[in-house]
Amino acid sequence: MSNRDGDGITITIPWWVVYASAIVSWAPTLFTWVYNIAASVFGAAHINDGSLAVTVLFGIPAMLALPVLIIRKVISSTTGSLKRRFADIDPTIFDGLVPPKLILPPGTRILAALSWLPVRNKSIERVFKPVISDMQLEYIEAIAAERPWLARAICARYYVIIALTVISFAFTASLKRVVEMWKLVG
Amino acid sequence: MLISSGESYGLELVKASDGALKRGTVYVLLDRMEDKGLIESREEEEPATDGYVGIPRRLYKAKGAGVRALEAMERDDFLLRGAVTT
Questions:
Q1: Distances (CA, A) of A31 to A18, A46, A48, A66, A143
Q2: How far apart are CA A153 and CA A143, in angstroms?
Q3: Of A127, A126, A129, A150, which Cα lies nearest the Cα of A140?
Q4: Cβ separation B58–A164 shorter than 8 A
Q5: How many domains does chain B divide into?
Q6: Distance from A82 to chain B by nearest Cα, in Å?
Q7: Residues of A with CB below 8 A from B48's CB?
Q8: Which contacts qualify for A51-56: CB closer than 8 Å, 24 or more apart?
Q9: In whole angstroms, what is the distance from residue A164 CA to residue B44 CA?
Q10: How does strand B7-9 pair with strand B39-43?
């Protein structure tokens, strides 16, 4: 759960603790809401929502912690895979040189984050990977031309392009679903 | 463009289209065309730049069905124009 390093104590909360606390703290409120809706429909007596305090105290912090944990998981997964890839390199070859700095190609973490979307692997391969590949190519060309500010501008531009790609993909995918459902019903 | 150039990258298509295709939508469009069997794609084998170790790019090529679909569209367009002008 915790370990002590040179700078202080780092506390790591396991995933299951966060999920369990979210479920346990939200369950009474959800039950009350569902029960009261059903009671309104069938004309039964409502129950008082005494579980609100539990939700505010535990549920909301737990739900707020989830995105932070997901982002940390994405960062640690990409960094971990890079460390494993370069594990065979002898660190003494860097002796006497400027301390090495490992730089990820732009878009690596975006690609890792996109894998969390409910999208098929085929779509990741065909739609999102090519965009990030273009981004990396244009970025490398700008760096090779010794134009770092252009490279940064390309990155910023492609972040917008990736967002647009996600939106247009979501739009066409949902449209496709609607057409499929329409055909089934018709 | 794909028929005349043989195999092309998405970025090449965007640049050749003079603004008709956008970077944010070109791959969604190509994905749909591939689903319909009009084009096919593959990942490039050699990296585009020497010493560059990024994600390999994707090459697109028109299939026979795509060529026939384009010919049919052009023929329909010709017939429609003829019907409108006469």
A1: 20, 12, 11, 22, 57
A2: 12
A3: A150
A4: no
A5: 1
A6: 13
A7: 137
A8: A54/A25, A54/A28, A54/A29, A55/A25, A55/A26, A55/A28, A55/A29
A9: 25
A10: unpaired
Chain A residue numbers with beta carbons less than 8 Å from the beta carbon of B24 are 131, 160-165, 168
Residue A149's pLDDT band (cuts 50, 70, 90): very high
Would you state the pLDDT for residue A101? 64
Residue B57 with chain A: CB contacts under 8 Å? 130, 133-134, 137
Domain containing residue A178: 108-185
What amino acid is encoded at B75 in this protein? R
Pick the residue from chain B with its C-alpha nearest to A136: B54
Enclosing domain of residue B54:
2-85
Q: Which of A35, A65, A94 is the last residue of a domain?
A: A94
What is chain A's Cα-based Rg?
Answer: 24
Q: Which of B11, B28, B29 to mutate to test the interface with A (most CBs of A within 10 A)?
A: B28
What does the pLDDT look like over A83-141, one tens digit per residue? 777 777 776 766 666 666 667 788 888 888 887 777 788 888 888 889 998 898 888 88
Of residues A62 and B23, more confidently modeled: B23
Mean pLDDT by runs of 10 across the 86 residues of chain B is 77 85 85 88 72 77 85 77 67
